[in-house]
Amino acid sequence: MRMYRIFIIAAAMTVISLPMAAQSEAGLIAGAEAEKKISKDLSIGFEADLRTRNNFKTMDRWSIGISGSYKLTKWLKADAGYKLLDYNNREKIVNYTSSKGNDKIKWRPGYWSMKHRIYAGLTGSYKFQNGLKLSLRERWQYDYRPESTPERYKLKLSDQTMTLDEGYVREGKGENQLRSRFQIEYDKKHALLSPYASMELYNSWGIEKVRYTIGTGIRLSKQHSLDVFYRYQDIRNLDDDDYDPDMHYIGLGYKFKF
Length: 258
Prior knowledge:
Blueprint: H1 2-16, E1 24-37, E2 42-53, E3 58-71, E4 76-89, E5 92-97, E6 103-108, E7 111-127, E8 132-145, E9 153-156, E10 161-164, E11 173-186, E12 193-203, E13 207-219, E14 224-235, E15 246-257
């Protein structure tokens, strides 16, 4: 019971540290994962997930991926993987004044586009005899968004006319990020629940977002488990073209080991 009290205190400190969001949305994260142990130290995994936004009303993205992990030592693990993501990009409205002094608007409706992600990382962990586990994960990831030609319209306010911006191209873009996650977990062998709390920083020459997560693993059997969590995502310094509000997520995941 003492370890549960320590975990509850740590989780409460995580909640207290959440900044108050002036503008935010709620969404759902739902995922499934399968993991195959190749040897004592090597495993491969397959995963798929989807996310919603706009207070659960709008599909935000879906993704599929493959990964591998290798246990280097008792306390250090390496992993790497690839993900294909399909994003529902938000609409964008820009007010501007033309060279002739006319007030105009550029309107880009929402549209879907693909993104490729590769990543690699190291996770160091230490587990106390009483089941309390501390871990630090450092992960590098590279995202590439291919060039696309979504529809964009020009609206002239004076006579309320709208024309298609036929020359508009959204250029391809690549981004490197370092993700640093610290996690505290109660990981007792064969326990029904494995509660945890974590904080993760996304860094690309500056902190772009911070994720705070509180949840628990639920052991259904030796092969089947669930993950239930709440996550607050604090957006800091994203590019205007990649705007996202702060998010409150409810998450549900399923994992199968074979």
